[in-house]
Write a structure and sequence with these properties.
243 residues; 2,3-Dihydroxybiphenyl 1,2-Dioxygenase, domain 1
Length: 243
């Protein structure tokens, strides 16, 4: 049984800012993507760390869930995705942790999935999926040229119940607990994938994504930092750039 933090998905009504930030400024390379019922999605991968996925509603009735999210929150982080080798084992662990998964669909042999509601997953949707093969979607023409490659080396997520959140990511989702104290816990998965959990009381839904961090050798120029901050703000994110 293996579980890997695969990607952070970001909902947006337009893709240009996402391509400019994650491709043009941070050097992401096209992984794959395609149209799904209600939305189009595409993923970029980095020198290390999880992928970034951009999701855009397509205006059909099936897009209602994503349009509701954007109407309520604006562009921003939508879900964490974990790829698992055996989703039935994962769902047993989820239920043993006291969470009832939603949106369970095990009918497609190539993509079986389920979701943890943000009220039970510390402020963000968590998707678990068992995948057989990868889509072959072509890169969109507007993707543009990549900037210098960077590593996606940290997601910082603030939670109200640090102990229970740590148990979810460690015990249910197979993370390796690298460090822990009264206020923080860092959990990792293979390939440089890292979530730092930080205790913060009074958060809606008991949690919120605080920021993401990208790093590359050398340093980011002031102009690069300014550009990244502006694009990230349009996407509902805070991005830290580390040299």
């Amino acid at each position: 049984m293996t579980t890997v933090l695969d990607h952070l998905s970001i909902a947006t009504p337009a893709l240009a800012d996402g391509w400019d930030l994650f491709r043009g400024a941070l050097g992401g390379t096209w992984a794959y993507g395609e149209a799904s019922p209600g939305f189009w999605w595409g993923q970029l991968e980095f020198a290390a760390g999880p992928k970034i996925e951009l999701m855009k509603p397509d205006g059909t009735p099936e897009a209602a869930f994503l349009e509701r999210f954007l109407a309520a929150h604006g562009p921003g982080p939508h879900h964490f995705n974990f790829i698992v080798s055996d989703i039935t084992v994962t769902l047993d662990r989820v239920r043993a942790h006291g969470i009832e998964p939603v949106g369970v669909n095990l009918d497609n042999p190539h993509w079986k999935e389920a979701f943890l509601h943000p009220r039970q997953a510390h402020g963000i949707v968590i998707q678990v999926a068992q995948q057989d093969g990868n889509p072959d979607g072509e890169a969109p023409a507007e993707l543009g040229e990549p900037g210098p490659p960077a590593s996606f080396d940290l997601i910082e997520h603030h939670v109200g119940d640090l102990g229970r959140a740590t148990a979810l990511f460690r015990d249910v989702l197979d993370g390796q607990l690298e460090s822990v104290d009264a206020e923080t816990a860092e959990v990792t998965w293979p390939g440089g994938k890292r979530i730092r959990l930080v205790h913060e009381a009074g958060l809606p839904l008991d949690g919120a994504l605080h920021h993401v961090r990208f790093a590359r050798p050398g340093s980011f120029s002031p102009a690069e930092r300014e550009r990244a901050a502006l694009l990230a703000k349009r996407l509902g994110l805070t991005v830290e750039l580390a040299g």
